[in-house]
Structures are given as structure tokens and as C-alpha cells.
Amino acid sequence: MSFYPGLSLITLGVADVARARSFYERLGWRCSSASTPEVAFFQLNNIALALFGRRALLIDAGLEPQPDASAAAPVFSLSQNHGGTGAVDRALAEALAAGGALLKTGQATSWGGYHGIIADPDGHVWEMAWNPHFPLAPDGTIDLPT
Amino acid sequence: MSFYPGLSLITLGVADVARARSFYERLGWRCSSASTPEVAFFQLNNIALALFGRRALLIDAGLEPQPDASAAAPVFSLSQNHGGTGAVDRALAEALAAGGALLKTGQATSWGGYHGIIADPDGHVWEMAWNPHFPLAPDGTIDLPT
Fold it and tell me: B71 falls in which pLDDT band (50, 70, 90)?
């Protein structure tokens, strides 16, 4: 089972990363040093949370940015991390065999890793990723830099 | 910090619970015995996943079901569980103080617990819940019945 029952990271699409980041920081949550102006990462107790521009998130997922009509609909993706590119490709193949839709074949990413994207039957986006920068526990939890 | 940095459950809004459940079961994931025809629960390694009708999810979150135009937009919610109703109310108050929008005040639920709902500045839905049926670990992870 390469597409294992676990979740490493949830990405929320936001209109303004700085504004979204401020909300979570006002709760007392600490932003990871891996954050940039384009993406904010928070290490939660059991999962990582990312805040990323909604348009950038849709493009990264292999989806067309929506027209104005649905610009207000919340956008998100679920990521599960793997130990290497082969495991990413196997997980993508399992998702397709189970009835998922391929949005993006496994490929190198701009951030130095490898990923591919599928959608479940309701269009929920799952990213399968190998990220050499974030240590990965056996249960799929990743360790962000503090 | 009542609104702690952790996530107990993610709920995905689906058009057909049985169809959505089948997809995840074909991956080899095991459905919890807490599941019903209306909602399917999966215990993942580090979090719980729920599949729930998209219209029911919107109503439960205190949101209007969308008009046809955006009926295809994926819908989801993030839940964080607490040890009691007082902690739920404190977490809701913290979310509002940080700039969140109240969608539903803390109240008893049909399933025998207590919850309230807020939205972050981008409309992402957070449920704060007390569920006496699901044991809760200190990091926010819940244990579904197998």
C-alpha cells in the first residue's frame, strides 16, 4: 500500500498569505522558518499546515484557476509524503487503479522534490510528494524546521 | 491556548458517500465501525478522515448550501477536538479574537456532543468539537472504533 492511510500536510488556498499567516499567529501558533512570503508553514501537533496563494495552489495542482464566479470558494489540498520518487509513482498508480483522476504525473518540482497529483471522485486534491528537505516519520508526519 | 495547533479530523464533502467510501476502501483503507450510510470514517495514521454529504456538511457548518454555479467546488472542514464544552467555547472565543468569523455558536449536536464553527479569513471552516464517543489524545488525535 503506497497510498497509505495518512496525511503529511494540508494546504489552504488563501487570498493573501501575510493576512492568513497573521490570523494563525494571533492564535499563538509558530510559523516555521521554512516559510517564505509565498507560503507559510505551521507545524501542528500531528500534521503540517501550509498557507499558499489560492491561484498558485490551483496551478500547482494541475487545475485551471477558477473564473470569477467561484473565486470565493475555499480551495485546499491534502498531501502525503513518501520516502522517494518510486513510492510517489506507486501511490499515484494505486490512486488511478482505485478510480482517481490524474491531474499531474509524477515530476520534479521547483522546490527540489518530486510530486504528482490526483483527484478523488469528488475532486478533492491529493498530492503525493517526496520532499528531501522535510524529515518524514513512518506514519507520514513531517518535521518542519522550527 | 484552547485553539491549539492540531487537527483531529478532516471532513470531505462528497456527492455520494457510498461512492466516495468505495474509492478509499479500494486503496485498502479500513472504514471505522462508527460509519453509517450518512458518514464514513477512516482512521488514518495520524488523523481521522470523514466523508460526508456536501450539502449536509455545509448545513452542519452553518453555511448556506451553494447555488448550482459552484456546486462542483470541493467542500471540506477541519475539526479539532477538545476535552469538554468549556474548552470548545474558549477555542471559539480565541478564534474570534484573532479575527475569525463565527458561523455557529457552541451548541449541543445531534450526535450527542457539542460543537461550534468558525471560519478563518479565507472562509476555511474550523469546527471546535467535544465528542464523548471518540477518545482524544493530548495532541488532538482521536481514536475511532475499529
Answer: low
